[in-house]
Amino acid sequence: GTWWFDPGTGRLHVHFTGVAAEPFAPRVEITMRDRLFAPRKRGLGYIRVKGFVFERAANQFELELKNNPDHAQALTYLGDIKIRNNDAKTAETLLTRAVRLQKNIRLAYFDLGILYAKQKRNPEAIKAFLRAEELDPKEPDAHYRLGRIYMEQGEKQKADIEFAKTKDLHDKTTESLIQKVTGNTGPPPQHP
């Protein structure tokens, strides 16, 4: 089946098919291939799942947009799918509309940055990645992509700053994950 998350209601919509269609099945496993949302308020960090063919969800986003053409989150997720399917023109239309409707969707700005960077529209890519950073400064991906653009433009000092932020955020994420797994809330062990 398919699923999508609506941050407006905080609901995860899951559409089961086949054997898993039984709502009281003893076990359900949801898998996907990329990060889609970060329920940090619940202390979970990013949900990472592998193997899901995300494109299957497109029909659900399209259905939602038929019912509510101004659903910014559905526009964003459908735009993300269009990027993965190499449909840059449609993706840009969907994502630009999403950010016009709702100014705080980090994924929409991040995806616009990816699109613009691929098209060598660096000033627009930088603006989009900076907005994504502003919305979630602890997410390393936008910092890394900004660093790459700055490096490409010969702005080594700016690139170094962004790469340092990326490394710092990855180090903190790794440390946090180790603490959650081990239950050790003290400083990490020092190795000689």
Short description:
This protein is mainly α. The protein has helices at residues 58-67, 72-84, 88-101, 106-118, 122-135, 140-152, 156-182; strands at 2-6, 11-15. It is built from seven helices and two strands.
Low-confidence stretches: 30-53
- Report the biggest beta sheet as strand number plus sense, adding barrel if it closes: 2 strands, antiparallel
Structural class: mainly alpha
**Care to count the β-strands?**
2
Cα-atom Rg, whole angstroms? 19 Å
Quickly count the helices.
7
Mean pLDDT rating: 77
Helix amount:
40-55%
The helix-strand sequence is: EEHHHHHHH
- Oligomeric form of this entry? single chain
Strand order of the largest sheet: 1-2
Q: Categorize the overall geometry.
A: globular
- Beta fraction of the residues? 5-15%
Compute the separation of the termini in Å.
50 Å
